Amino acid sequence: MKATSTDYVKEFEQLSTSLLKIPVIDRCDHRSDKKEGFLAYIVFKDASTVNLDVTVLSRAFPSLITEVVNRQKLDTINLENRYSIIMAPYISAESAKQCERLGIGYLDMSGNCRLQVRFIYVNDQGHPNKFAEKRTAKNIFDPSSKVSSLILREIMRDITYRWKLSFLADTLQCSIGQVSKVKDYLCEQLWARMTPDGLHVLEANAIMLAWNEAYAQKSESFEVMGYHTLLPVPEFEDKIRQIKADSGIDCYLSGFAGGVRYAPVVRYNKIHLMVRERDLNAFLEAAECKQVDSGANVQIQVLTSDEMLHDARLIKDQQVASPVQVYLDCMQLKGRGEELAEAILAKEIEK
Question: If I label 303, which of 14, 183, 226, 251 is the partner at 20 to 30 A Cα–Cα?
């Protein structure tokens, strides 16, 4: 490695360390700095060379990576045998996929990389990442972020609609800044695009998968209580309906019980419900089901706020959580939960 003055010392050293693990590479030399990164070249044992165009970003999200590649197509740097690489402290799975789609390499500051130079392919993963982003998806999809959750639920209610940010803010009674935060992240990931007509969802599946990942990590924070009823499933569901008619207590089906209302592709013997905390005791008394430590055939998720009930439906006189919520809940279930979630995604969300 040639010692050369550069403003990107750590980045150049990280790149060199990763490349020099490859036996056929003799050295990696710095050529010059550029506005966002540096130019370098590697020399193989046979004396052949490849030029490296390394762009260093503080945050590497898919839309910015695309912009970088488009700019490189128009720049005036005259480099033969040029191979482009994105470097950043942290590169998410979505950003890594975008680099692969665009035919460029990536390397983070923990050594995780995917590089394909001539006949060399390096895919070095699994290094503990000290620079993982702490805002992004966690703030957007985390169930504890109630306003972001509500905005997402409204957007995903109809992905064919062009959502005006001001309309979302007015309808949901939140600030335009909160709506913009959600919009910015979705657009950064290339999951949505802002057009003159409004925000347009492009990748509903990717959004729901990312949401599910955050939801799964936080699902333990929800208060879910197990109960047992002696009634068969159809009779207990009839009783739920009657409780609503008699006392006005809201109880929403989710999980398998909610999912089959949207896509009847599985059978089930356990009922998943969502009940507001203030209604729980009255519901349990009316439903005559007992709390148990094991063998529960009724699972109740206790709600302390209402954003999870956004876009809930009434289907054949039965209250059912929204397709988005049922998808998230089904994805957490063993057995055929994921299959049911995918059917709901295709039939109700991506329709």
Answer: 183
